[in-house]
Structures are given as structure tokens and as C-alpha cells.
């Protein structure tokens, strides 16, 4: 009996030792995987590094490319498109004008009643319409018919006192936020689509012509008097409110910048110099690229698999369409190579663009002690539950790396523009203010991104110069700006507003 008892005790001890060994092995395995996950993150962080010395190189490269793009067509990755806007709003504009703002998966229609210097914007109304996904890759007629119908419905809601006289055409400012080769203030051919649109038969067509035909098909009597990019609309809206505005930047789904250039500093301009001496330039800076940009393997893979490989490299590093996707790709590698979410890769994590930048922003800015928002987002979007606090902290860190890189590169781009127009240094005794109008959901809603960008700009320019540089949020600048430009280019200018 005693022998059996001893044997049983020994058996138990062996089992306990085996279980303990298993636990140790599991811990070693999981700590090995944890180290692997940390190593993936660390490596990514190094690749995304934006020390101030590198940012200065990026800013200088931006200035060099601006010069090259102004010198000749195709001279640079920056298209530096001449906008034909040589007069920005002054505040004297009067009357009722419409605007159409097409810049992404939604478009807005606006009605703006302008009352001149005394009353400024008397009244504005708008409606937002989402574009069904099939129209983003369908035919040109289908897209523009859909837009014209929404516009006609909106016009039908005009209040009694605002009806136009029969001999007066309604006028529209058309903000079209895709690369266009402008041929006049009210015409331009589409160079290519970006932001998920791919409508082959519209490329090379005059977008104002396409919209006009669609309006004619449904009997809407309206004339497009200004075709502008959203960045130029933002610049016009900003200048209407502040005469010191020199540039505008959009940081939203996509990104772009426009600024006021001296007309004689545009070698490729062959027309008569405008009376104002100025010309607004649409940079199309999303297409900027430079060997100084911090590009990781994830960015390269994202670019290769995108609709426009090799294009819009700057946009893919800094804009709202792509930030969340970069985070997803790094998480996927951590799940695949370091079993970050357990033994199997979560199915939802395999879906490109499932993690949107607003989700990333919510996780990055989570201030709850146990990072509850991070846990909720992972569960709701990726169907990943039971994450530890330690894991959630890593995810916040990852969001921070991606957002910081984007914000700091945005600041370097702005510094490049200021350098090009000589606003990056202090002139003797001059205290001239330079205002940059900023618009876009990324800038407006992602507080950490915005703060990081503004702090980086101060770091790049130095405290003294920064005192004269103001970043101003121009809320819906592009829509109002388009209406203002329709007003300042109206066919009825000089005719009594009776």
C-alpha cells in the first residue's frame, strides 16, 4: 500500500512539474512573440523617423520642386497648375450664388447670399449628398446626371424672396477636387481621378462641359462661372475673411495645397500678365515625392496595391484616406509574425481599408484609464475581443507613430511653400502676418494630428518667425470660396443689381 502511495505521489509531482514546464514554455513562447511584436513596432518607428534635419530636407525639396513645376509643364512631380484665378474675393461681392463642392465620397450643394462689405454673407444654406459607390467607377454621364439632379432639387428649395428674374441665369462655382488641366477660369480637362474614383470616359474631358450637359438634360438653367480646386476655394474663402491669407492646405481624405504666386515668377505662363500681378497656383502637392521622405515597407506595399501605383506618394503618407490603412498593415504583420492577437489572424484584419482614420484617431486619443475606446473599436471593427491593456497600449503607440509622421511631413510641406514665397524669414523691421487657411476632416477632427503639425511648423521656422505665421481653420472654406469666386467672376459684374 505504502509503495503505491509513494508511486502516486511521485506521479503527481511529475504531472505538476510537467504542467509547470508547460506554463514556463508557454510564457517563454508568448514573451518571445511579444518581443517579436515589439521588434516589428520598433523597426517601423525607425523607418518613420522625422528628425528636424530630415524635415528641413523635405521642405527644401518641396521648394525646389515648386520652382521646377512653375518653369515647365511636366518639369516636376508637382503639377503647379495655373488656376486662372488672379483676383481673390475682396468682400464687395453681392447677390445670390450657388456652389457645388465635389471632393470625395460626398458632395455638397450650397446657396450663398452675399451682401457686400456691409453685410458680408447674409445667409448660407447647404445640403450634403453621398455618392453611391457604383457611380465612382461607372460612366461620366451617370455621375454628372446624379449630381445635376441633386442640384436641381436643391434649387427647388429657394425661398420666395430669392427667386431670380427670368432674364438672369443662376451662377455656380464648381469646386472639383481632382487634378484638372485648367484652360480658363470656367473650364478644365480632367487629368486623372484620385481618392477611389475611376471613371475612364471622363478623363481628358472638360468637367464643366460634362456638368453643363447633365444640367441641360434635366432643364436646369445654370452657368458655371468658376471651376476651382477645393484648395483654391479654401484660399478664396480664407482671403474673404482675412486679407493676410497667402496659402491654403487641405488635410482630409486627400491632401493638396494652393498659394498666391507672383505672376512674373511663373516661367511657363505665356499669356499677358494679369493686372493684379498675382496668380493662384494649385500645387497638387499630394503627388510630391522625394528621396528624403520616410517610406516603410508597408507604404511601399500600399502603393503597389493601390489604384494609382507610383502616384500621390506624399498623399499616401499624410492623408486621411491612408493613415488607418497603414496602421492595419502593421497590425496584420504583428498578427501574422508575432501572433499578436492569438494563434490565428483575425479575418477582418485581412480586409484592406477596414480600419478608417476616424477609428484610428479615436483609439489614438483614448484617455480612459483602461483604454476602453481602443478595446471597443477593436471589437466593433475587427471583431477582436479580449485584448490586454498591454496590447492596447501598443496599438495606441502604433497610431501615434503613423499620425506623427503624417503631421510632421505636412508641416514640412507648409514650410516649403513659405520658403518659396519668402515668408520663412524675418525681413528687417517687417512684421507681416502670413496666414495659411487649413481645411479638411483630418485637420479639423484629429486633434493630436493638428497639434503635432502646428508644433512642428514652429520648430521648423523658429519662435520669432512663427509669431507671424498663423494657421487658421477655414471651416467649409472650399464651398463658400467657390460661391465667392462665382461672384467675383460673374457675367453680370457691373450690371446694376436691380
UniProtKB/TrEMBL annotation:
InterPro entries xref list: ATPase_NBD, Hexokinase, Hexokinase_BS, Hexokinase_C, Hexokinase_N
Reaction catalysed by this enzyme: D-fructose + ATP = D-fructose 6-phosphate + ADP + H(+); a D-hexose + ATP = a D-hexose 6-phosphate + ADP + H(+)
Provenance organism: Gossypium hirsutum
Stored Gene3D superfamilies: 3.30.420.40, 3.40.367.20
Gene: LOC107893309
UniProt-listed CDD domains: ASKHA_NBD_HK_plant
Pathway: Carbohydrate metabolism; hexose metabolism; Carbohydrate degradation; glycolysis; D-glyceraldehyde 3-phosphate and glycerone phosphate from D-glucose: step 1/4
Protein name in the entry: Phosphotransferase
GO cellular component: cytosol; mitochondrial outer membrane; mitochondrion
